[in-house]
Amino acid sequence: MRLEHKVALVTGSTQGIGRGIAQRLAREGADVIINGRHDDEHARASAELVRAEGRRACIIPADLATVANCKRLVAESIEQMGRIDILVNNAGVQKHTAFLQASEADYELILNVNLRAPFFIAQAVAQHLMDSGRGGRIINNSSVHEELPFPNFTSYCMSKGGLKMMMRNLAIELAPLGITVNNLAPGAIETPINSSLMNQPEKLSALLCNIPARRLGQPRDVAGAVAFLASDDADYITGTTLVVDGGLLWHYSEQ
Question: Which terminus of the chain is more solvent-facing, meaning fewer CB atoms within 10 Å of its CB: N or C?
């Protein structure tokens, strides 16, 4: 088990990709902090999957739209689990809105959760690691849209583009502390957020034509890449984005 004796904080881990990441890190030997907006049946289901792998799990709910909650999440995680070795900034939101109709409220929510929260959570975790004299891993779940335009999702693309530059800067600043910082950029992944797409055969078929692998990704595809970046196998990898998209990024065209 590559992550034995490690503790991982995975934001947005109550369902979808985040849940898959939490389960895979537990399978690799890590204890896991489950985070979502609420301590509900979804959060408890994720925690049970971690425990089923023989690892410890705790649930710390926090709405990451506020900096105070981001800092509280890290402080309570350390209090309950004793340490954090791996941070996976997975929580994110998006909204389909044409640029000319976008509201200030939508813009602030997307940028706050997708970009500001990873910044301040990473800051708190890095401070903890430095104070503890240990290295660690910071992994941001970004998107192919840190590179690829996505009409009607401008704020979302801005947040992911910003996350790419944040990652590159932090990789340089934190490398002397033994902390690596990388992004994962998933393409189209089959999760609850895409449930409506799954019920629209024409749209799904058009999307699959843009994916050379001819299938949607699964949470396990992203989770396996996160487990690699969190492990000692990736000790010399920092400041990069690992794209997990079945070839979509370099084959995509708007229909």
Answer: C
Element (H, E) at 138: strand 136-141
pLDDT at 247: 84
- Host H or E run for residue 41: helix 41-52
Joined together, the tokens standing for residue 196 give 């409506």
Other CB atoms within 10 A of residue 71 CB: 15
Q: Quick one: CA dihedral 49, 226, 159, 169, positive or negative?
A: positive
- For residues 58 and 76, the answer to whether their CB atoms sit within 8 Å is no
pLDDT in the model for residue 216: 86
Q: How many CB atoms lie within 10 A of CB 35?
A: 29
Closest CA to 251 of 208, 218, 219, 220: 208
Catalytic machinery residues = 156
**Of the candidates 138, 126, 188, which has an alpha carbon nearest to the alpha carbon of residue 163?**
138
Phi, psi of 142 (to 5 degrees): -95, -125
pTM attached to this predicted model: 0.93
Neighbours of 183 (CB within 10 A): 26
Per-residue model confidence (pLDDT) at position 253 = 64
d(CA 163, CA 115): 6
**pLDDT, position 195:** 62
Q: Rounded distance, CA 234 to CA 242, Å? A: 12
pLDDT in tens, 43-71: 999 999 999 999 999 999 999 999 999 99
| pLDDT at position 217 | 83
